[in-house]
Structures are given as C-alpha cells and as structure tokens.
Protein: TetR/AcrR family transcriptional regulator
Organism: Candidatus Proximibacter danicus
Amino acid sequence: MEHAVSCTSADIADLANATERLPRRRRKDARPSELTAAALDLFVEKGFAATRLDDIAARAGVSKGTLYLYFDSKETLFKAVIAEGIVPALAAAEQQLADYQGSAAALLRSLLLGWWQQIGSTRMGGVVKLIISESRNFPDVAQYYHDHVIVRGRSLLRSALRRGIDNGEFRKMDVESCIDVIIAPLLMLIIWRYSFCFCGNDIQPDAYIDTHFDLLINGLMPPEART
Amino acid sequence: MEHAVSCTSADIADLANATERLPRRRRKDARPSELTAAALDLFVEKGFAATRLDDIAARAGVSKGTLYLYFDSKETLFKAVIAEGIVPALAAAEQQLADYQGSAAALLRSLLLGWWQQIGSTRMGGVVKLIISESRNFPDVAQYYHDHVIVRGRSLLRSALRRGIDNGEFRKMDVESCIDVIIAPLLMLIIWRYSFCFCGNDIQPDAYIDTHFDLLINGLMPPEART
Amino acid sequence: MEHAVSCTSADIADLANATERLPRRRRKDARPSELTAAALDLFVEKGFAATRLDDIAARAGVSKGTLYLYFDSKETLFKAVIAEGIVPALAAAEQQLADYQGSAAALLRSLLLGWWQQIGSTRMGGVVKLIISESRNFPDVAQYYHDHVIVRGRSLLRSALRRGIDNGEFRKMDVESCIDVIIAPLLMLIIWRYSFCFCGNDIQPDAYIDTHFDLLINGLMPPEART
Amino acid sequence: MEHAVSCTSADIADLANATERLPRRRRKDARPSELTAAALDLFVEKGFAATRLDDIAARAGVSKGTLYLYFDSKETLFKAVIAEGIVPALAAAEQQLADYQGSAAALLRSLLLGWWQQIGSTRMGGVVKLIISESRNFPDVAQYYHDHVIVRGRSLLRSALRRGIDNGEFRKMDVESCIDVIIAPLLMLIIWRYSFCFCGNDIQPDAYIDTHFDLLINGLMPPEART
DNA sequence: CATGAATGAGGTTTCATTCAT
DNA sequence: GATGAATGAAACCTCATTCAT
C-alpha cells in the first residue's frame, strides 16, 4: 500500500513546527481545519466513541479547551469533519461530467479514476469509512450524506450509463442496480485501505481499478461489439 | 479480576471454538448465545464503544452482572460475538465447493448466491459490518478474520476463477484483483443494509446480485464465447 | 447559638458506622435521604454551584457514582433536596390551624413558635436559605415553593389575623402587608443562623421570637384593649 | 500571577477604600465602576460561583481580558463589588442620625424610610442579597460586612430605641432583640425583591414599610400613651 | 489600554467491573 | 446461578486566568 493512512509522528511534528510561528490571525483562520483534520484521522482510526478529545487535541498540537473554542461539542466536531470532507467531494464530482464529449466508456473510466484520485485515495476517503461506521449513531449525518453525496454520485453514473445504452455502446441493463454494483468496488477499496491495511491483504489500487473497469466494460458491451 | 485485560494471541486462536468451551464457564443451556445475539445486534447498530453492557443485558433480558458469569469482559464478549458469527460462516463456505461438478460459471453463481443466502442476508452479516468498523481497535480479531475468513473465501473464488480460465470459460485475467472486485459488491450489499437502510436507498438484493453476476460473467467470458 | 448548623465530623462518623452494617435492602431504601441530607448541608453552606458532587458523596459516605444511581443530575438532586424539605414543612404547617379554639393571639403565637420548633430550627430551615439564594437559577423550584409553601403559610397567618380582627382582638389592619411583616423576622432568623452565625452576631432565637411576638401583639391590639 | 489566591486580612481592611486606590491599577475614568455594576447585577442574579466572567464582560461591553486590567481575580472583583456597595451605604447611614432633634418615633421612621430610599430600593440593595447568599464562602467579607455595616446599623437603631425608652416614648424592651426584629422586615423586603420577584408575590414596598412602622410604633408605645 | 485566542485544572457525568446478597 | 447496588477511572466539558498582539 503506497499511502500512509495515518499520519506518522514525524508528520505531526512537522505540522506543529510549520504552524508554530504563524501570526495569531492566521492561526485563528487555519485552526478549524487543523482540528478537523486531526479529528478525521482519529475518528477513522478508532471510531467516534472510542476517540478521546484529548487525543484529537494532542494530535492537532493544541489543548483540549481549544477544541471548544471552535466546536460546541464532540458531536459538532464530528459533523464538521464530515461536512469538510463532503464539500470538496461534491465539487470534484460535479466537475467530472460537465460537457464531457468522449465515449460513454471513456467517461465511465474517467469517473472511476477521477473519483479515486481526488477522493478515494485522499484523506477524504476516510469520511466514507466514517459514515459507514457511524451512520446508525448519526442518522441525520447519514441522511445528509445520502442526499448530497450518494444521490449525486449515482446521478453521475446514471448519466454515463444511459448515454452508453442510448448510443449502443452498452447493452440494455437494469441501470439502477448497475450503478450500485459499479460503486461497490470503489467504496470497498477505501474500506480495505482503512480496515485491513495492517493484515497481509495488500490490495493494489491501480490493478484493482483496472480490473474493475475491465470486467465492467466488457460486461456492459453488447456481444457483437466485442472483438 | 483474574484475567489480563487484553486477550492474548492464544485467546484469538481459540476464537473458532470459543463458543464450544468457554473458559472457566460452563454452557449447558442457550444463555450464552442469547447474550451474544443481543450483543451482536447492538454492536452492529451502535459500534463497540458506544454500546453499553446495560443495554445488552436489557435486550437479553438479564441483569448486567449475569454477563460477567459468561464473559470476563466486554472485549471477551465482543470476541465471542465475532467467533460465533464466523464459525458457521466457515462451515457454510466450505460446503459450497466440495466436489462441485458443474461449469465454472455455475459454480461462481452458486458461491455468490449461497453466500448471500447463508451469510449475507442472515444475522451473521452484521459481523461483516462489525469487523469493518472495529478492525482498527481489535487488530487481533481483524487478523483472525482475515486469515480464516477472507483468505478462505478468496481461496474459494480463486478455485472457481482458475477452473474457468483453465477450461476456457473465462478470459485470462489478473485473478487476485478479480477476486477482490467480485467480493466487493457482496460486502457492500451488507454495508448498505446496515448503514443506509433507514434513508431512502432501498437496494433490492436479488436484482443487485443478478446484475452483479450478469456483468461479471459477461465481463469474464472471452469475446468469442458471447453470442 | 444552641443548634449546630452543620454536622460535625463526629456526626458523619456516627452516620457511617450506623449504616455500615445494615442489610443491602435497608440501605437501598435509606440511601436517597442520606444523600439529600448530605447535599442539603453542603448546598446551604456553599451554594449550589460551589458545591462539588465529590463533597456530597464524601459526606454521605458513598462514591461519586452512587449519587447517579438515585439522581439523574446535580440539578435533580437539588430539586429532591428541596422537595424533601418542603413536604414535611407543609404537613407541619397544616396541623397548626386545624380546629384551633383559643384566642387569635394564642393562635398567632402558636403558629410562630410551632414554625420555629418544627421548621425553622431544624435542618429543614436550610431549605429556606437555599431557596432564597438559588431561586433565580431555578425559577421553577422557586415558583413551586412560592405556590405550595409561601402561599400556604400566608394563608395560615391570614386566617389568624382575620379571626382576631373580626372578634375585636386586633385593630383593623392591611392584612396582606401585615402577613409579610410577620413572616419576615422568622425567615431572617434562619438567614442569620445560616449566614452570619460565625461572626459575632449571636442571635438568641427564643428572646428574638418573644420580642417579635411581643411587639406584634401589642402593635395589633386596639388601644383600648391595652391596660 | 503575583497574588496569593485568597485575600489576606489586609485586603479586607482595604475594602472600604478599595475603590479609591485600586492596587497596581489606576482608575481615572468610570471603567471600574461600570465593571462592578455589571458584576453586581450578575452576582445577585446567579450567585458568585454561577456567574461567568465572560458574562460580566459582555454585560459591561468589554472583553474578558479587560476585567483583569482592573481586578486581579474573580474574587477581587467580588470584594470590590461589595466594597463599592458598602461605602455609600455607610455614608448614607451616618448622615441619618447626626444631631437629630425630633421624637424617637420620628427618628425611627426616618431611619427606616431613609434606608429604604437610599439603600434598599437602589442597586445597592443587591449587595445585601449577595452577602446573605455568599457569606459562607467569603467569611472575611461577611465579617467585614458584619463589623462595618451590621454593627453600625444596629448602633443607629439602638440609639433611637434608647432615646425613646429614656424619654418615655417607648416601653421598656429588650433592646438588642428589638433591633433585630426591626431590621428583619427591611432585609426581607430586599430578599423578596431579588428572590421571588418573578412569581406572583408582588409586595408593595410602601404599604409594607408603612405597616411595619405602624405595628412597630404601636408595639413599642406604652399602653397609656395610646389613645 | 484593550483584545480574544489559548490554556489546563477541575467539575459533572458515564459506564465497565465487582461483589454481597 | 443470578442480581443490582456500589465503585472509581476516565470521559466530556467549563471557565478563570494568561499573554501575544
């Protein structure tokens, strides 16, 4: 696995040094995202309930009380973590489809790879793991995530599938279940990275995505189109 | 307390047969499995840390102290829950492959459907969600699960894929990543059921699995085999 | 001052010994009032906010967690303290007036002395100090106290005054303000006991009440009745 | 922090002139008294411990740090609040008696009404409530208040009573307890205003004081003096 | 002078664990 | 075996106090 899921202690030390000398005002602005970044790492690693605010504060290099200058409660902090992970995800997703001119297959490939590069493989990927683990304890967060991320992501895939079916690139399929089947390996890739990274199961993301796309595109193509 | 707080690796090795001979405690009646059943439900719903022993006891209809007659600690209970969910899963999986005579495609289909019917759709499916959510906090449990369930499950799929490739039913593929891509939608089906069940995203398991298999088998088939 | 306002450490030691050996069941029943008694002492001494639950628990001879077996929160405990102090006060007050046959003056004297003996000089007197100090922070408690204790107590005095005015024992007076003027020295007696007891201001309750009644009864009597 | 946490008795001795020369801090403008005024309001309303410096600062329209430019600690601020409420009270009281030429009854009436008009009904009245509520937590403040306000106030009343007894206006009485009985309704008037103001118990101060004086003066007069 | 971000000791509250009954 | 009252460590959270700006 080529990405470090959790920050090393060296990272932490660097972060502390880098921000130590900044003027007060810049700190004030930068603080919230420093805190949510630290919180995200720990929430993903340990889960919401098992993460102590002390640890978040320590990782962010501040005192426990400082957290409460920016977030009213642990739960508020949690929601800020999710919100901060969702907004860029949405923006990134929207950019993918706008005025795409190529084939449906190429669009599909672009969506899968783009998602992985801009979301899945980044720190934001942890949000997915977090939502999955904590959705039952935070139904409103899950609902928001569902409405704004899942629905939107499915919409992008639906467009690509419809386009391919309409122009004969793809077979006629049950589009809705197709969407879920396409998304699943992407989400599982994240989960594997965050859940079983430490036991021997080394998944190679690139080969994995390649295979996923290969199987998918061959599975979608009408028999007569294949050589 | 006569037991160390954290389980030793020996404890883990015992996971598989833990429910048969609970250490220092007899189990003649059904009590222990009533307790683990209640615990499983709540662990899946709230996560390990957020689940209180009071609630488990209440759901099982016993007093809190009774839990300690059967399990030395909350962590021991957790491991028993996992163990009890894993053993039948393994047994079920093993039965699938033994002396299977049909085509590789039919075997593959049988494995997918059989897993869903005997594991995924049952209460044991929750164990998957649980492992995913808690693996970082219980590396030994995750390792055990990996070694005994994941490795074993992948092994079954590997056999099926190899057989299909060898006999020309399937294209030549990167078998290892193929395995993960095949498993992913199954696991995600569980996660959807346990994480987003309450927001509008109603996944139809049968259609979903059909589509998964349809895409998969068409994607695996060599072009010339398709009509 | 002849009454100890706060328990001495000897009292505490005795209490602990006395209850140490009681069977579990008896403890369970007796616990709440042991806890409220300890809480009352400390709330009166330090005020609600400045009293730590640690101290209450220590004084009651239990652990901090035990408080939460009986009261949901510090505020709930506070309200229980008040409630427990109010109920007997009401009962005591009601008994005073029932079918009283003597003169209005004797009734008045009986009310004043009775209140002092059964309420003011007992541990329940602290509740008055507590209500006065904390009413702004607990408006609902204050309202309840007003409606059930103050209104009721004023009602008793109103009856006595009306009777005396009707039968010529007393002058015609503005009964309502008279009531408040009569009550005031009683309440202040408590406040003095709980607020300035430690500086040199030794008020002699008996002499004080005698003087209060003396001034009052002479002030109420019509001129021609005095010799 | 260069000051010990608890005030020394020397600090207390300075209470009276504390507002003239705040240690280490100059006071040219009205700022400090704006701060103590805000603090008084909140201390009276919520009590010392339950009042946050944030709230005091907000009410005074300054930042929290500004409080520490004028007062070394919350406790110092508290004592300044008391001191500022006591000094004018003493001055006002002293003026009452000087070279009074009228009857003892008129003097008594003047003392009661004067106190109400200049102390009880003003913002300084809150100090009385405050002392009553907090005296146990600030014994030195209470002692100072006792020595300089209570003793002095009782002294004024003692003079008036003695004069009346000596010249035959009043009966022979136990002067000391008489003093306390006379003061009590005044203090209770304040307490009612600050403690039960919000539940329906509307006390009319003028009628209340009239009745108090009426009862008192008739109670004090010898029988033969009444018509 | 004035600010307000930052601190950390100390408070309330929770809950896994124990043990007398 | 079973109970549930009791415990106390540890969590979340508050707020008096400091200090760089």
Notes: The CA atoms of residues 172 and 214 of chain B lie 18 Å apart.
